[in-house]
Amino acid sequence: MQLIECPWCGPREEVDFSYGGQAHVPYPENSLDLSDEQWAHYVFFRDNTKGAFRERWMHSAGCRRWFNAVRDTTTYRFLAVYALDEKAPVIP
């Protein structure tokens, strides 16, 4: 079982968390003006990065707070976790 570091609760088992998708995806500025194709692109199209990838996670069985994480998609290892209002760490 993998442990994930919650920024507020500390390390907890992976089953306590819910995946929230790619982090740092901005909401469209003029959402009412978007076509169906543009909405589909915003909702469904995400990067498919090999290596360090920024994601959103929620500690759903704990404090129920969202946070961001940098995870290596090739090893599944978490490289960093940080609160939503914190700046993303630089990963070499």
From TrEMBL:
GO MF, any single term: sarcosine oxidase activity
Keywords: Oxidoreductase
BP term (GO), one: tetrahydrofolate metabolic process
Ranges in coiled-coil conformation: none
UniProt keyword Oxidoreductase present: yes
Domain of life: Bacteria
UniProt keyword Hydrolase, yes or no: no
Enzyme nomenclature, EC number: 1.5.3.1
UniProt-recorded name of the protein: Sarcosine oxidase subunit delta
